[in-house]
Amino acid sequence: MTDFVIPSPPVVTIPVAGGGAFPVRRVYCIGRNYAAHAVEMGHDPDRDPPFFFQKNPDNLDPSGTFPYPSQTNDVHHEVELLVALKSGGTNIAVEDALGHVWGYAPALDMTRRDLQGIAKEMGRPWEIGKAFERSAPVGPLQPVADVGHLDHGSIALTVNGEVRQTGDLNQMIWKVPEMISYLSDYFALAAGDVIMSGTPAGVGPVEKGDTMVVRIDGLQDLTVKVV
Protein backbone atom coordinates (compact mmCIF):
# COMPACT_ATOMS: atom_id res chain seq x y z
CA MET A 1 0.00 0.00 0.00
CA THR A 2 1.36 3.43 -0.99
CA ASP A 3 2.17 5.72 1.92
CA PHE A 4 0.80 9.03 0.62
CA VAL A 5 2.32 12.15 2.17
CA ILE A 6 -0.97 14.06 1.74
CA PRO A 7 -4.55 12.74 1.54
CA SER A 8 -5.24 11.17 -1.85
CA PRO A 9 -7.65 13.24 -3.99
CA PRO A 10 -10.99 11.52 -4.57
CA VAL A 11 -11.67 9.71 -7.84
CA VAL A 12 -13.83 11.88 -10.12
CA THR A 13 -16.92 10.04 -11.34
CA ILE A 14 -19.98 10.58 -13.52
CA PRO A 15 -23.18 8.93 -12.28
CA VAL A 16 -24.64 6.22 -14.49
CA ALA A 17 -28.36 6.05 -15.19
CA GLY A 18 -29.76 3.13 -13.22
CA GLY A 19 -26.89 3.06 -10.73
CA GLY A 20 -23.14 2.93 -10.50
CA ALA A 21 -20.47 5.46 -11.40
CA PHE A 22 -18.01 5.95 -14.24
CA PRO A 23 -14.46 6.93 -13.13
CA VAL A 24 -12.90 9.71 -15.22
CA ARG A 25 -9.24 9.82 -16.25
CA ARG A 26 -9.03 12.67 -18.79
CA VAL A 27 -11.38 15.16 -20.49
CA TYR A 28 -10.76 16.05 -24.14
CA CYS A 29 -12.83 18.78 -25.84
CA ILE A 30 -13.00 19.44 -29.56
CA GLY A 31 -13.26 23.03 -30.77
CA ARG A 32 -15.60 24.39 -33.46
CA ASN A 33 -17.04 21.01 -34.50
CA TYR A 34 -20.33 22.31 -35.93
CA ALA A 35 -20.12 24.49 -39.07
CA ALA A 36 -22.71 27.06 -37.96
CA HIS A 37 -20.93 27.54 -34.62
CA ALA A 38 -17.59 28.00 -36.41
CA VAL A 39 -19.19 30.74 -38.49
CA GLU A 40 -20.72 32.51 -35.48
CA MET A 41 -17.30 32.52 -33.82
CA GLY A 42 -15.78 34.14 -36.91
CA HIS A 43 -14.07 31.14 -38.49
CA ASP A 44 -14.25 29.27 -41.79
CA PRO A 45 -16.25 26.03 -41.37
CA ASP A 46 -14.19 24.06 -43.89
CA ARG A 47 -13.08 20.64 -42.69
CA ASP A 48 -9.64 21.61 -41.44
CA PRO A 49 -7.85 19.17 -39.11
CA PRO A 50 -9.59 19.11 -35.72
CA PHE A 51 -8.13 20.74 -32.65
CA PHE A 52 -8.65 19.86 -29.02
CA PHE A 53 -8.23 21.43 -25.60
CA GLN A 54 -8.67 19.84 -22.18
CA LYS A 55 -10.72 20.41 -19.09
CA ASN A 56 -9.79 18.87 -15.76
CA PRO A 57 -11.65 15.75 -14.60
CA ASP A 58 -12.89 17.55 -11.49
CA ASN A 59 -14.45 20.28 -13.66
CA LEU A 60 -17.20 17.72 -14.38
CA ASP A 61 -20.19 18.44 -12.15
CA PRO A 62 -23.36 16.30 -11.92
CA SER A 63 -24.94 18.40 -9.16
CA GLY A 64 -27.47 20.27 -11.31
CA THR A 65 -26.17 23.68 -10.23
CA PHE A 66 -23.60 25.95 -11.85
CA PRO A 67 -22.02 28.58 -9.58
CA TYR A 68 -21.36 31.74 -11.60
CA PRO A 69 -17.55 31.91 -11.63
CA SER A 70 -15.26 34.70 -10.50
CA GLN A 71 -13.18 37.09 -12.60
CA THR A 72 -15.68 37.28 -15.48
CA ASN A 73 -18.73 39.16 -16.67
CA ASP A 74 -19.49 37.02 -19.71
CA VAL A 75 -20.13 33.31 -19.13
CA HIS A 76 -21.52 31.38 -22.10
CA HIS A 77 -23.35 28.07 -22.42
CA GLU A 78 -22.22 25.44 -24.93
CA VAL A 79 -24.39 22.30 -25.13
CA GLU A 80 -22.47 19.11 -25.96
CA LEU A 81 -22.68 15.34 -26.26
CA LEU A 82 -20.17 13.67 -23.93
CA VAL A 83 -18.61 10.38 -25.06
CA ALA A 84 -17.18 8.02 -22.40
CA LEU A 85 -14.54 5.43 -23.30
CA LYS A 86 -14.30 1.93 -21.79
CA SER A 87 -10.93 1.20 -23.43
CA GLY A 88 -8.35 2.94 -25.56
CA GLY A 89 -4.94 2.64 -27.16
CA THR A 90 -2.93 4.38 -29.84
CA ASN A 91 -3.45 4.62 -33.61
CA ILE A 92 -7.03 3.39 -33.38
CA ALA A 93 -8.61 2.87 -36.80
CA VAL A 94 -11.81 4.83 -37.50
CA GLU A 95 -13.71 1.60 -38.18
CA ASP A 96 -12.69 0.23 -34.76
CA ALA A 97 -13.25 3.40 -32.73
CA LEU A 98 -16.87 2.90 -31.61
CA GLY A 99 -15.88 -0.38 -29.99
CA HIS A 100 -14.10 1.69 -27.33
CA VAL A 101 -17.22 3.70 -26.34
CA TRP A 102 -18.99 2.80 -23.09
CA GLY A 103 -21.77 5.36 -23.22
CA TYR A 104 -23.02 8.90 -23.73
CA ALA A 105 -24.23 11.78 -21.56
CA PRO A 106 -25.59 15.33 -21.98
CA ALA A 107 -23.13 18.01 -20.92
CA LEU A 108 -22.29 21.72 -21.00
CA ASP A 109 -18.95 23.32 -21.77
CA MET A 110 -19.36 26.55 -19.77
CA THR A 111 -16.94 29.23 -20.94
CA ARG A 112 -15.63 32.48 -19.48
CA ARG A 113 -15.89 34.01 -22.94
CA ASP A 114 -14.21 37.30 -22.05
CA LEU A 115 -11.18 35.54 -20.60
CA GLN A 116 -11.05 33.12 -23.52
CA GLY A 117 -11.12 36.08 -25.91
CA ILE A 118 -8.18 37.73 -24.17
CA ALA A 119 -6.23 34.46 -24.31
CA LYS A 120 -6.93 34.11 -28.04
CA GLU A 121 -5.76 37.68 -28.73
CA MET A 122 -2.54 37.04 -26.84
CA GLY A 123 -1.92 33.61 -28.39
CA ARG A 124 -2.20 31.90 -25.03
CA PRO A 125 -3.87 28.63 -23.97
CA TRP A 126 -7.62 28.62 -23.26
CA GLU A 127 -7.67 26.95 -19.85
CA ILE A 128 -8.41 30.18 -17.98
CA GLY A 129 -11.63 30.47 -19.98
CA LYS A 130 -12.51 26.79 -20.15
CA ALA A 131 -11.08 24.74 -17.27
CA PHE A 132 -12.39 26.57 -14.21
CA GLU A 133 -14.19 24.96 -11.28
CA ARG A 134 -17.49 23.18 -12.12
CA SER A 135 -17.26 24.35 -15.75
CA ALA A 136 -18.66 21.10 -17.17
CA PRO A 137 -22.14 20.29 -15.85
CA VAL A 138 -22.96 16.72 -16.86
CA GLY A 139 -25.98 14.44 -16.77
CA PRO A 140 -26.06 10.69 -16.11
CA LEU A 141 -24.18 8.44 -18.48
CA GLN A 142 -26.27 5.95 -20.42
CA PRO A 143 -24.55 2.84 -21.79
CA VAL A 144 -24.35 1.96 -25.46
CA ALA A 145 -26.13 -1.28 -24.57
CA ASP A 146 -29.23 0.81 -23.74
CA VAL A 147 -29.11 3.74 -26.18
CA GLY A 148 -26.95 2.56 -29.08
CA HIS A 149 -24.46 4.85 -30.77
CA LEU A 150 -25.72 8.41 -31.11
CA ASP A 151 -24.75 9.64 -34.57
CA HIS A 152 -27.90 11.63 -35.37
CA GLY A 153 -30.78 13.26 -33.53
CA SER A 154 -31.60 16.61 -32.01
CA ILE A 155 -29.25 18.41 -29.61
CA ALA A 156 -30.71 21.52 -28.00
CA LEU A 157 -30.45 23.91 -25.07
CA THR A 158 -33.13 26.12 -23.54
CA VAL A 159 -32.53 28.92 -21.05
CA ASN A 160 -35.59 29.79 -18.95
CA GLY A 161 -37.71 27.94 -21.50
CA GLU A 162 -36.33 29.86 -24.51
CA VAL A 163 -34.54 27.82 -27.18
CA ARG A 164 -30.97 29.10 -27.46
CA GLN A 165 -29.13 26.31 -29.25
CA THR A 166 -30.43 23.65 -31.61
CA GLY A 167 -28.82 21.30 -34.09
CA ASP A 168 -28.44 17.67 -35.05
CA LEU A 169 -25.66 15.31 -34.03
CA ASN A 170 -25.19 14.45 -37.70
CA GLN A 171 -23.99 18.03 -38.26
CA MET A 172 -20.68 17.35 -36.49
CA ILE A 173 -17.79 18.15 -38.84
CA TRP A 174 -15.70 15.43 -37.20
CA LYS A 175 -17.78 12.42 -36.16
CA VAL A 176 -17.23 10.51 -32.92
CA PRO A 177 -15.20 7.66 -34.50
CA GLU A 178 -12.99 10.19 -36.27
CA MET A 179 -12.38 12.13 -33.05
CA ILE A 180 -11.36 8.98 -31.21
CA SER A 181 -9.04 7.89 -34.03
CA TYR A 182 -7.44 11.33 -34.37
CA LEU A 183 -6.85 11.72 -30.63
CA SER A 184 -5.29 8.25 -30.46
CA ASP A 185 -2.65 9.33 -32.98
CA TYR A 186 -1.41 11.95 -30.50
CA PHE A 187 -2.34 10.52 -27.07
CA ALA A 188 -2.60 7.09 -25.50
CA LEU A 189 -6.34 6.89 -24.85
CA ALA A 190 -7.56 4.71 -21.99
CA ALA A 191 -10.62 3.58 -20.09
CA GLY A 192 -12.07 6.54 -18.22
CA ASP A 193 -11.29 9.13 -20.88
CA VAL A 194 -14.21 11.29 -22.01
CA ILE A 195 -14.62 13.46 -25.09
CA MET A 196 -16.84 16.52 -25.29
CA SER A 197 -17.84 16.55 -28.93
CA GLY A 198 -18.52 20.22 -29.73
CA THR A 199 -21.48 22.58 -29.73
CA PRO A 200 -23.97 23.80 -32.35
CA ALA A 201 -24.66 27.47 -33.05
CA GLY A 202 -26.44 29.76 -30.60
CA VAL A 203 -23.94 30.04 -27.74
CA GLY A 204 -24.65 32.96 -25.44
CA PRO A 205 -24.47 34.39 -21.93
CA VAL A 206 -26.17 33.22 -18.76
CA GLU A 207 -26.91 35.04 -15.53
CA LYS A 208 -27.53 34.04 -11.94
CA GLY A 209 -31.03 32.64 -11.59
CA ASP A 210 -31.18 31.18 -15.11
CA THR A 211 -32.25 27.58 -15.67
CA MET A 212 -30.59 25.68 -18.51
CA VAL A 213 -32.06 22.46 -19.92
CA VAL A 214 -30.05 20.19 -22.24
CA ARG A 215 -32.01 17.84 -24.50
CA ILE A 216 -30.32 15.24 -26.69
CA ASP A 217 -32.42 12.62 -28.48
CA GLY A 218 -32.02 9.26 -26.79
CA LEU A 219 -30.68 10.59 -23.48
CA GLN A 220 -32.17 11.85 -20.24
CA ASP A 221 -32.48 15.65 -20.01
CA LEU A 222 -29.98 17.65 -17.96
CA THR A 223 -31.32 20.60 -15.96
CA VAL A 224 -28.81 23.08 -14.48
CA LYS A 225 -29.54 26.14 -12.33
CA VAL A 226 -27.12 29.09 -12.44
CA VAL A 227 -26.48 30.21 -8.87
TrEMBL record:
Residues 27-227 form the Fumarylacetoacetase-like C-terminal domain. Keywords: Hydrolase, Metal-binding, Pyruvate. One of its GO terms (molecular function) is acetylpyruvate hydrolase activity. InterPro entries: Fumarylacetoacetase-like_C (IPR011234), Fumarylacetoacetase_C_sf (IPR036663). PANTHER family: ACYLPYRUVASE, FLUTATHIONE S-TRANSFERASE. This is Fumarylpyruvate hydrolase. The lineage of its organism: Bacteria, Pseudomonadati, Pseudomonadota, Alphaproteobacteria, Rhodobacterales.
